[in-house]
Specification:
Shape: globular
CATH class of the largest domain: Alpha Beta
Number of domains: 2
Order of helices and strands: EEEHEEEEEHHEHEHEHEHEHHHEHEHE
Number of strands: 16
Structural class: alpha/beta
Radius of gyration: 19 Å
CATH topology of the largest domain: Quinone Oxidoreductase, Chain A, domain 1
């Protein structure tokens, strides 16, 4: 089958290749891929940024989001049948959405939301799971709390705005002039145009900040939190809990403790908290999220769709910052909109 694989780490490490169809274990479903989507994580994994903790055996197929049709099910699989339309963010070390077929553990798969096309569904899993794990699992967001999400027009930001509003929060976001209307339509109560204003000068008393930019943006984010507030970053620096989550050797936990020491020290001085989030595959959460898409509480935002043969061009589109809003989708269906 045709796939896009990483055979060496680095910017030019991904290429098209012919690879064998994946082996299907007792707990796996084999999915014929209809669509996948591009995430910043694809670039990070391709570049080897997590190679010390995610021990991929090269060559491996890239792609963290997938939607498609089940063509085979292992002997221990239940609740999923051949012919079902499903979507998933396959677990780490078993990714591979940029291929004609992928074998996925049944615990990572959920029925595709009925209201979404397969192409729309492919844009959902990673960002929706990350949003859920930030807002529900980590921050336990309650009605009336104040949430700031950076880059509100992006794939993750646009999802966080909608889910935070569903949970009853007051939501602020940063964006640019071109996407201000979009983020307001998604539910943002306070919109900061970062090309004109410094969010840290106008916001205060927030319960949660979700940062996807890192660096100085993360440091400034700490200052808008109320005492005891929480800043969560999806770009780092990673903390010791990340190493534990991945089952990495204990010395890696120490390395990550040191990497995050500066930001944790800054947070402590301000009386606030810092955490790093590396989202995890979770089919049961995708089922809950699917219900929110079907009820109209959430909707995917899609920037553009590329044919499967142009997967590398789709990745370049994202890497070069040409995405205006939402996700870039790769479709097996020619000329799909």
């Amino acid at each position: 089958m045709k796939a896009f694989v990483v055979d060496k780490y680095g910017k030019n490490g991904a290429r098209a290749a012919e690879v064998p169809e994946p082996t299907v274990g007792d707990r796996d479903v084999l999915v014929r891929v209809s669509a996948a989507s591009i995430n910043p994580l694809d670039k990070m994994v391709r570049n080897g940024e997590f190679k010390q903790v995610l021990k991929y055996k090269r060559p491996f197929v890239l792609g963290h989001d997938v939607a498609g049709v089940v063509t085979r099910a292992g002997s221990a699989v239940h609740g999923i049948d051949v012919g079902d339309e499903v979507y998933a963010r396959p677990r780490d070390l078993r990714i591979g959405g940029f291929a004609e077929f992928i074998a996925i553990d049944m615990d990572d798969v959920a029925p595709k939301p009925a209201s979404l096309t397969l192409q729309e569904a492919a844009a959902v899993p990673l960002v929706a799971l990350a949003a859920w794990q930030v807002l529900v699992d980590r921050a336990h967001v309650k009605p009336g709390q104040k949430v700031l999400v950076h880059a509100g027009a992006g794939g993750l930001g646009s999802t966080v705005i909608q889910l935070a509003k569903h949970l009853g929060a007051t939501v602020a976001t940063t964006t640019n002039t071109d996407t201000e209307k979009l983020v307001r339509d998604l539910g943002a109560d306070v919109v900061i145009d970062y090309t004109k204003e410094d969010f840290s000068k106008v916001l205060s008393g927030y319960d949660l900040v979700l940062d996807s930019l890192g660096g100085a943006n993360l440091e400034k984010s700490l200052t808008v939190l109320k005492p005891g507030g929480l800043a969560i970053s999806v770009v780092g620096p990673p903390d010791a809990d990340f190493a534990k989550q991945l089952g990495a050797p204990s010395f890696m936990g120490l390395v990550m403790y040191v990497l995050s020491r500066k930001i944790r020290k800054q947070a402590k001085a301000l009386g606030v908290r810092y955490q790093f989030l590396f989202m995890q595959a979770n089919g049961s959460q995708l089922r809950k999220l699917g219900a929110l898409y079907d009820s109209g509480k959430l909707r995917p935002v899609i920037d553009s769709t590329f044919p499967f043969d142009q997967t590398l061009e789709a990745m370049a589109h994202v890497e070069q910052g040409r995405t205006k809003a939402g996700k870039v989708v790769v479709s097996m269906v020619p000329d799909n909109d």
